[in-house]
Amino acid sequence: MLVDWFRIKGRSLHSLAFSFHRLTGIVLMIYLILHLTYLTSLRFGKESYEYLISLTVRPETLPFDLLLLLATVFHGVNGIRLVIHELGFVYEKRNLILYLTFGIVLIVWLYAGYLMFLLIMG
Amino acid sequence: MEVEIKVRRFNGEKSYWQKYRVPVLSGMTVLDALLYIKENIDATLSFRYSCRMGVCGSCAVKINNKPRLACETQILQLKDVQIEPINNFRVIKDLITDFDDFFAKHRIVKPYLIRKNDSYEKPVEMIQTPKQLKKYYRYSLCIKCGACNSVCPVSSTRDDYLGPAIMTTVYRFMTDNRDEGKDERFKIVSSERGVWRCHFASECSEVCPKNVEPAKAVQKLRIKSIIYEIKKFFK
Question: B200–A82: do the CB atoms touch at under 8 Å?
Fold first, then answer.
């Protein structure tokens, strides 16, 4: 059952990473559709695009932007970790690499979030 | 000292929890507690076991949400005891799950040495160095308890997926210098139901009671499959 993708009770951090990867993948797919919708709006003129941007790029939507940023950073960094392991490398150090992944995600997210905060809040 | 044990029961129609109070002694395993319940409290409780020493893999159950061998889990090391059948297998009764499909998949991958010219009239010694043995030894320790399959998120969504235990067996034979059945097995594991379905949750390695590292075997088998597919393309 699909719900088993998100089963983390009694399991290790690896399962948590797997569940997060699936979840962030779904979030990014929805974002991609929205992003393409925004870009397609350019066909109807500059005004329609700017109207859509004004709906989502504002201080009130900053928390959602930060969550989207977290999803993007996690999916990317964790994806690199998976590629490394799936090519048969550093498998024995998988726990250390998982902790490193979470650490890198946190650092990149906080820094990028800070930049985003400055950009939107001025 | 008495311990309360919660057991997930299934009577063929409905699933429910049942509590038992069991007197425990130092050194007592979860399997000992289940046997105590069956002999003294409730003879209808059903579970599977055989060797009682972590060799046969029959007694794999979910203890406190984690698949373990009941015969190797010390009851006094647990705070509360909650026993359930392992996931991703159909429950037949109480803690007994259906392993027919699991062993059917096992048969598909031919879990034995394949030799092209095997003569029973003139048997030839199949020599192996310790270094060659070391290549697959760890993977030969799999006891087919199904713990790895029970936590695999792909096994839970795809019935046709071979699963980590079966692919570990394949890797074990693929790395054995005496085996000559690589082509036959590659056709199976390099298919849609094989290595390409693994998404590396790596939980299989985390729960393996024999530390066989099924996730590592699957990734190594994936590399072998890539090389096999490239070679096949240029043939």
Answer: yes
How much is the pLDDT for B55?
Answer: 96
pLDDT digits (tens, 9 = 90+) for B29-41: 999 999 999 999 9
Is residue B85 classed as helix, strand or coil in its secondary structure? Answer: coil
pTM: 0.89
Asked whether the beta carbons of residue A88 and residue B62 sit closer than 8 angstroms, the reply is: no
Please identify which residue in the block is written with the tokens 């939980």.
Answer: B203
Give the DSSP H/E element, type plus range, for residue A74: helix A62-86
Neighboring chain B residues of A94 at a CB cutoff of 8 Å: 202, 205
For chain B, the domains span: 2-97, 100-233
The encoded tokens of residue A21 equal 């990867």
Nearest alpha carbon to residue B61 among B27, B91, B21, B37: B91
A33 confidence band (pLDDT: 50, 70, 90): very high
Q: Among B202, B204, B223, which would you mutate to test the A interface (most chain A Cβ atoms within 10 Å of its Cβ)?
A: B202
**Topology at the third CATH level for domain B2-97:** Ubiquitin-like (UB roll) (3.10.20)
Q: Which fold has domain B100-233?
A: Fumarate Reductase Iron-sulfur Protein; Chain B, domain 2 (1.10.1060)
d(CA A31, CA A25): 10
Taking phi over 0 as left and psi of -120 to 50 as alpha, with beta for the rest, B178 belongs to alpha
Residue burial B78-87, b: 16+ Cβ < 10 Å; e: rest: eeebbbbbbb
CB contacts, 8 Å: B65 with chain A: 9-11
Task: Give the closest of B206, B216, B220 to A14, CB-based.
Answer: B206
Residue A15's contacts (CB-CB under 8 Å, 6 or more residues apart) are: A7, A8, B151, B153, B201, B203
> How far is the C-alpha of B49 from the C-alpha of A42, rounded, in Å?
67
Query: Distance between CA B109 and CA B121 in Å, rounded?
Result: 27
